[in-house]
Amino acid sequence: MGGGCVIASSYEAKKYGIGTGVSIWEAKKAHPEVVVVPGNFRRYLLYQRSFLEIIHQFTPDVEVASIDECYIDLKGLRRLYRKPYREICQDIKDTIKKHLGITVSIGLSNTKVLAKTASNFKKPDGLTVVGAKDIEKFLATRTLSDIKGFGSNTRALLQKHGINTPLEFVQSSPEKLQKLLGKIGLEMQMELSGYSARPVNSKDELPKSLARTRSFKVSTDKAFIYQQVLTNLSMAFWHLRRKKLKTTYVTLMLRGKDYKTYGQEIRLPEELNSEIAIVKLVKNAFDLLYQSDLPYRSSGIITSGFYHSDELNPKLFPNELETPGQISLFEQIDSITDKYGRETITLGSTMKSRSDVDPISRLYLPYIGLTS
Question: How far is CA 83 from CA 13, 18, 53, 109, 144, in A?
Fold first, then answer.
């Protein structure tokens, strides 16, 4: 769960209609016996990193689609590993299960859309191969809702024009699909026919923005809410460093009990990825945004305006906010947290304040502290 709604559900829960986006209140009302487990995004991200490291041991051509999904280009690997693609996929599954203790489902086919559809065919722990000769037979067993990219509005439009199955979509005239869906329609027809229109893209392109949010029990406690903000900040900048990015814009977000969102943008004087360098700017933004009579339920930090750290030209004058010492410090911190866990080292100001000290006064300057 996260933010009061279901963000993932077990196969057992899905059978009872409890899927992603359903509110916890609705799930408990319909099924009082449901077990609600809080999300642990930091653990998920550590698993994702290990998962991707295993995938990259087999091939560098990997496109990350989400936190638990990726596309892999296997072309040429049969010669390298001297075995069929199916066996290579099974080796990937076995390696992930051995080292991470989790199962994965793999779809193997000519295109990304077919591979994605095949990966959903047998879950959990499935391996489905759809060869070129089997595409038509496979599509005959699928519905439009099984195809990634066919949302409810697209399905309704296609059905109004007599296209009710993926096979009927493939067999439609290109002119008709282009008129209905434009270029995307032609690409989807190619993908579902077994001709790649969307090759695996392993290039790490700059994202438009990255957000780290945190839900908490509704509160008006200024010190507590600011601690959540600093935790968001620490997580956001940890991800920037992992992705070798620097940011020029930071937006502080607070969401009220009524789900109304309030934001304050901070334009940084230079490209940064060390949270210590901007904690005072974040504190000033928080003071402007926070309203003492307004209860809050979540906070967030959104970063944007990115540059690749390796591609920035050296500064003629020293960076006033992000010193070489800070850069070296966070390199060491990140190596420790990567090995022992994200919360091994954290900002001291994100920890619970002592009751005998004014909590707000302790949050102006961050201190690095060990936690066990």
Answer: 38, 41, 22, 16, 34
